[in-house]
Design goal:
The complex is a heterodimer of chains A (250) and B (234).
Chain A: E1 12-18, H1 24-37, E2 42-46, H2 51-62, H3 68-92, E3 96-100, H4 103-112, H5 117-123, E4 132-137, H6 140-150, E5 153-154, H7 169-187, E6 194-197, H8 202-216, E7 248-249
Parallel strand pairs in A: 1-3, 1-4, 2-3, 4-6, 5-7
Helix pairs in contact in A: 1-8, 2-3, 4-7
Chain B: E1 20-26, H1 32-45, E2 50-54, H2 62-71, H3 76-100, E3 104-108, H4 111-120, H5 125-131, E4 140-145, H6 148-159, H7 177-199, E5 202-205, H8 210-226
Parallel strand pairs in B: 1-3, 1-4, 2-3, 4-5
Helix pairs in contact in B: 1-8, 3-4, 4-7, 6-7
Classes of the chains: A alpha/beta (250), B alpha/beta (234).
């Protein structure tokens, strides 16, 4: 697999990866705002957001229809749709594409669910690698408490309840997220993750991210001369949820 | 004894699948459903519990898959992964449980149709084989071979119109659906002939009469069902 730069495309791809609650969405939001304020051509996309595929995924999750195999395949379908419809054309057109989660999320989660590593990797082999991947490293306990504090309910698949590890959602969640974290750590070197210490204050992390991006990507080349694309005309808002007290499984 | 083509399904031991998996492949209009109905009646009369499975029937994705077909908005790769999801759901929720329970499973199409369609659309064979390595190797695969001209006659006689996808209109072979159908079905037939060598399908002349094909299938399936079970490893 090659990076977008190695593929000879004019665009650049930046991905953030890490456990839920590692602060990666906040960081990519701040990066996006910075790049947009510089009037650069930027596109932002989230995991599991292809319109058509998402409705099937949601039903599958709600009705607990998904197995490790179908969980993997339906997310790959979603990714392929976004990749071929948006990402690839935008990268060819010279955009900086920001991805909140990329193929490494699939590699980590699907393998933690018991899918064969080679099988999963080959499914995603059509995708270009990011030019920069930021991995937000937290210790497990910090990530867990951040997620548990922010949500009234832990989702069935998020907790890996489908694996039957434990009938207690919190215990299952703890174990499953631990496996995902391990899978991420095993990939870090191979895919040249930029490892971020997620325990640092947000603005300190962001300063480091901006410095790395500015060093590695010639930002002035991405200046937008034409009209601002529709999807950046409205100023995005950072999602934030107040902490909630009790937990149940959905 | 059963096995997977490739990596298989995590947690499933194919050796425990004691039923028989019989696949009928062929284009639309090749007579698959007619033959499967006849086989079902025959097998049930002989006392074999039989279940029929097919493509695009999963509870998981079939509504969205239908929508995608109507809207023609997904790329071949996305469509292929969507179909693979649908297939995996059927495999895990219908085929494997039935085989575990000792049923005869009659599959109205299997991974070969999905592979052939995407080969014709330019996807890499190796990539396709990896994905469909989740599939159980069937006990027998029959391919009902019908020349494109004959398929065209049958389709028009039945529906008085040609289907967009069965004509391969997304490939841009011709703007004329009639010409496109013939070209596309010829490509599909060629792809199947190639897959036949690889996967060892039993070719059946689909232009023979319905009872003749039925007789041929029954003869072959009888042999399969009466075959003594393979000796267990010590």
């Amino acid at each position: 697999m090659k990076t977008i730069a190695e593929m000879g495309l004019p665009g650049r791809l930046i991905a953030v990866e890490g456990l839920d609650g590692s602060g990666k969405s906040t960081q990519i939001y701040l990066l996006r705002r910075w790049l947009e304020e510089k009037s650069l051509k930027v596109y932002f996309t989230e995991w599991n957001s292809s319109e058509l595929v998402k409705s099937a995924t949601s039903r599958g999750k709600k009705l607990h229809l998904l197995t490790p195999t179908t969980f993997c395949l339906i997310h790959a379908t979603d990714f392929a749709d976004r990749y071929e419809r948006h990402l690839l054309p935008l990268l060819k057109a010279g955009y900086i594409v920001l991805c909140d989660r990329y193929i490494f999320t699939a590699f980590a989660r699907d393998v933690a669910r018991g899918c064969n590593l080679e099988w999963v990797r080959q499914i995603y082999s059509f995708a270009g690698l990011p030019d920069i991947t930021f991995f937000f490293k937290t210790d497990l306990e910090t990530a867990l408490s951040r997620i548990l504090d922010a949500r009234p309910q832990i989702k069935y698949y998020e907790a890996g309840m489908d694996l039957g590890i434990s009938p207690d959602p919190i215990e299952s969640f703890r174990y499953f997220q631990g496996r995902i974290l391990k899978a991420y750590e095993e990939m870090a070197q191979e895919f040249k993750f930029e490892i971020m210490d997620a325990s640092l204050p947000a603005h300190v992390q962001q300063t480091k991210i901006r410095r790395i991006v500015a060093n590695r990507i010639k930002l002035q080349k991405f200046r937008s001369t034409g009209p601002r694309p529709i999807f950046t005309q409205t100023t995005p808002q950072l999602k934030w949820q107040a902490p909630i007290e009790t937990h149940q499984v959905e | 004894m059963h096995r997977f083509y490739g990596h298989g399904i995590p947690g499933v031991d194919p050796k425990l699948l004691t039923g028989k998996l019989i696949v009928i492949e062929g284009a639309d209009g090749s007579g698959r459903s007619t033959q499967i109905s006849r086989l079902t009646t025959w097998l049930e009369a002989a006392g074999y519990p039989t279940v029929r499975v097919g493509l695009r029937q999963s509870a998981l994705v079939s509504p969205e898959l239908e929508k995608a077909r109507q809207g023609n908005i997904l790329s071949p790769r996305t469509m292929c992964l969507f179909y693979a999801t649908d297939f995996a759901d059927q495999l895990e929720k219908a085929i494997i449980p039935a085989l575990k329970a000792g049923f005869v499973v009659l599959a109205d199409r299997y991974i070969y149709t999905l592979i052939a369609r995407e080969l014709v659309r330019g996807l890499e064979e190796e990539w396709l084989e990896n994905i469909f390595g989740i599939a159980i190797v069937p006990d027998a695969v029959f391919y009902l071979d019908v020349p494109p001209e004959e398929l065209l006659q049958r389709t028009l006689a039945k529906y008085t119109a040609l289907d967009y996808w069965e004509s391969g209109m997304d490939l841009g072979l011709s703007r004329d659906i009639y010409t496109s159908f013939l070209k596309y079905q010829a490509l599909m037939r060629k792809a199947f002939q190639r897959l036949q060598k690889k996967y060892g399908f039993i070719m059946i002349d689909g232009t023979l009469s319905i009872p003749k094909i039925s007789q041929e299938l029954k003869k072959r399936i009888s042999q399969l069902l009466l075959k003594p079970p393979l000796p267990m490893a010590h």
